[in-house]
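pls design
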């Protein structure tokens, strides 16, 4: 979705209703702004960062048996491998 908006007199940006609805944000809700190259990314701030980050990276560890992984790491630290 792309919508052109104009900055107000005090450089304030109005987020159009359709975009606010897509993000699930409204009055009083905090957002995260990030600059990437020449673009600004707006994301709704998670209510709970623990829940938000839960499961991130699970694909990285798919198929890895934890006990075996830890054993190999410990052996490498001790120089046995």
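designed seq:
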């Amino acid at each position: 979705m792309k919508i052109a908006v104009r900055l107000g007199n005090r450089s304030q940006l109005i987020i159009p209703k359709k975009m606010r609805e897509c993000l699930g944000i409204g009055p009083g809700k905090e957002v995260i702004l990030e600059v990437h190259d020449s673009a600004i990314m707006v994301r709704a701030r998670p209510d709970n960062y623990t829940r938000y980050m839960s499961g991130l990276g699970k694909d990285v560890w798919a198929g890895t048996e934890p006990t075996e992984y830890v054993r190999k790491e410990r052996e490498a630290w001790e120089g046995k491998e």
